[in-house]
Write a structure and sequence with these properties.
This protein is about 45% helix and about 20% strand. The chain is an alpha/beta fold and about 425 residues long.
């Protein structure tokens, strides 16, 4: 497409989304749930066909030399597709939020004032790599009564097109407009530039991808942005703690999958348990080929671990999101130093404490300034599906309008409603 056609195409997407959003806002719960359950069925019945399209993207990515963690994000395995289908069903089973009125209170004047939950309208989703985001975004958009415009990464274009087609089939089967979920059909990046500067059509932009993408959108957008830039997540092993549990959780947080933003990138260990804990987690990481970039004290305790990949940590390592089998390791005096370190270096995404001390746990929950804070659990749980949100459209480290996994409520807003019986202001 040339520049003029891109502008016209973007305007068409925006206008169609705006018109569809009016239909979605008045759709009843049963209709939206039919669309979601139909989509779940279509995902399950099209696994083989979807994998054929997905294989084209994977082959192209590998031929282009895309890094292994990024190729991994592209894969639409049967397990990934089943998780998408379950997410649709989980959303369909959730209570209807749209139109719900809360906090209705009678005022001295006689009027009653409350708040009603309403859709945002139209959101634009710009994402990289993971094609399953197409289903997560679409399903949340349907349940929340919004319309959306999705722009996936060029590396997943075939997978995204195939998935978006199923979404539109499900919408039409339920009597809803197909244009309620539109996928940008071109890989031309100029469409992104258009979408983020169309406040007349788009109410909010949600970027999900690398730091450079999110920084660019945050800088250039003329509509509100819900975002997070990095996923530098921490696990702090406290004194006292259950050492065996700490090894299991610290292992899972790092190695269950390296590429997600909720994988642990930094390990903090209280000196009181370091001599017992570090050699054990070090052996676990060594067996899985995880490189440990540590402070001098931690490297001394890890030096005897057979096969351990060790390196001295630099100042940059404390802030790094590796998305790879690498983790930074630092010894700290205790919970005070751990909290201070996390609040200085964390990306405020997800941080966990492993402890047997209730007071330490409560302090960590209150004082760590992150979107998700955990006690005795893997950071890998920071996910909309695991939180029972049905799906998520991303993780927000902003403090307005949504924070943490952005699920159904994050795609809605509140407006005041006033009920009266002819009252007038004196």
């Amino acid at each position: 497409m040339n520049a003029l056609n891109i502008a016209e195409y973007s305007q068409t997407l925006g206008l169609q989304a705006k018109q569809a959003s009016a239909h979605m806002a008045r759709a009843n719960a049963a209709t939206k749930n039919i669309a979601l359950r139909t989509l779940a069925g279509l995902l399950r019945s099209n696994v083989d066909a979807l994998q054929i399209d997905n294989a084209k993207d994977i082959a192209r990515a590998q031929a282009a030399g895309l890094a292994a963690p990024l190729v991994d994000r592209l894969k639409l395995t049967p397990k990934v597709l089943e998780t998408c289908a379950l997410g649709c069903e989980q959303l369909a089973a959730m209570p209807e939020l749209i139109g719900e009125v809360s906090g209705l209170k009678q005022q001295p004047s006689g009027i009653r004032v409350g708040q009603m939950r309403v859709p945002l309208g139209v959101f634009g989703m710009i994402f990289e790599s993971r094609p399953n985001v197409t289903i997560e975004a679409a399903s949340l958009s349907i349940k929340s009564g919004n319309a959306c415009i999705l722009r996936g990464g060029s590396e997943a274009i075939e997978s995204n097109k195939a998935l978006a087609l199923l979404v539109q089939q499900a919408l039409q089967a339920a009597g809803l407009p197909a244009e309620a979920v539109q996928l940008v059909q071109t890989t031309d990046r100029e469409v992104v530039g258009q979408l983020i500067t169309m406040p007349q059509y788009v109410d909010v932009i949600i970027p999900r991808g690398g730091k450079s993408l999110i920084e660019r959108i945050s800088r250039d957008a003329k509509v509100p942005v819900i975002k997070h830039l990095d996923g530098n997540c921490h696990v702090y092993v406290d004194d006292p703690c259950d050492i065996s549990m700490a090894v299991t959780v610290a292992d899972n947080a790092k190695t269950q999958k390296y590429s997600p933003c909720n994988a642990s990138e930094s390990l903090l260990v209280a000196r009181g348990v370091a001599a017992e804990f570090l050699p054990r987690i070090g052996a676990t990481y060594a067996a899985k080929g995880v490189e440990m970039r540590g402070c001098a004290e931690s490297l001394a305790l890890l030096a005897g671990v057979p096969g351990a990949k060790l390196a001295a940590a630099t100042e940059q390592d404390w802030s790094e999101e590796y998305l790879a089998p690498i983790i930074s390791v630092k010894l700290v005096a205790g919970v005070d130093e751990a909290i201070a370190h996390i609040n200085q270096y964390s990306s405020h995404h997800t941080d966990a404490i492993l402890t047997r001390d209730h007071i330490h746990a409560q302090r960590f929950l209150r004082e760590v300034d992150s979107a998700s804070v955990m006690v005795n659990a893997s950071t890998r749980f920071a996910d909309g599906f695991e939180y029972g949100l049905g799906a998520e459209i991303g993780i927000s480290t902003d403090k307005f309008h949504a924070r943490g996994p952005v699920g159904l409520e994050g795609l809605t807003s509140l407006k005041y409603v006033v009920l009266g019986e002819g009252e007038i202001r004196s």
